[in-house]
Amino acid sequence: MATQQSRSAARFMMAPAVILLLGWMLVPLIMTLIFSFKKYLPMRGGDLGWVGFDNYVRFVSSSAFWPSVITTLVIVGGVLVITIFFGVILALLLDQPMWGQGVVRILVIAPFFVMPTVSALVWKNMFMDPVNGLFAHLWKFFGAEPVQWLSQASMESIVLIVSWQWLPFATLILLTAVQSLDSEQLEAAEMDGAPFLKRFWFIILPHLARAITIVVLIQTIFLLSIFAEIFVTTGGAFGTRTLSYLIFQRVLESQNVGLGSAGGVYAIILANIVAIFLMRIVGKNLDN
What we know:
Layout: H1 4-36, E1 38-41, E2 46-50, H2 54-60, H3 65-94, H4 101-109, H5 116-127, H6 134-141, H7 149-152, H8 154-179, H9 183-191, H10 196-223, H11 228-233, H12 243-254, H13 257-287
Antiparallel strand pairs: 1-2
């Protein structure tokens, strides 16, 4: 049992790491808040003084603000639906005994370790190119006209690219949950004549509820700041401009760091609202 002296020693040894971590998070946040109240043009005069809430008003009154928020939420929702649906299927398949099971699992998880810019370039040039892409050749093989994926189906393309990258993460978490399921319970249900769909709906899916909520929470936090895939593929055109990309464009166009900082604060607020909402869902699932 830990004594007061051992607890004090533990706090003392952890203090440098905690201080460093807090500084790593708080310093950029504080600087963002300060710059959001200033007109700071690094290429055109530098710090031009305080402007109050002018940057916030300019950013939120932009005609592109709410469409970018909606686009962000649509992409996040689409990716979550695809990764959870196919993640459950892959987790169930990978849990079955097969030849080369370890190799197959590594191959399924491998896309998660590919950099977002690299995966976006691969999809853009090798799969979605309307002339030389794999999809174009498949369309021609069946006698159809190739699709201009990044212009005609831009949102679907972004969701597909991001889903491909995050599917291994969901599969890994869900596979761990599937492997912790009591096999005797499934065997008893099978011996009682319960078909697979009923076993899945009443036994497997409730067991996966906690893992699914964790996947939703973690992926949402990261997906709200999606940027690289859009920058590499569509450049924010064709209705794919997310809030993060809008912040980038506003800073690049106006060279106003203060305006971009105000957009960053809005992004933090949006992320916290979504995170609080999801945390309530996760908490309820974990309590049940």
